[in-house]
Amino acid sequence: MALKSLQTNETDFGDLSEQAIVELAKSDPLAMSYLYRQHYASIHRYVNRRIGSVHDTNDIVSEVFMTMVRYLPRFRWTGAPFRCWLLVLTTTQINRWIRKRRFFSLWRSVHVLEPSADGSSDALDPRLEPVRQALIELPLAFQTALTLYYFEDLSVESIAEIMKCRPGTIKSRLSRGRELLRGKMIQTEGEGDAQRSSRELLKRIEV
Question: Does residue 7 lie within any of the structural domains?
Answer without folding.
Answer: no
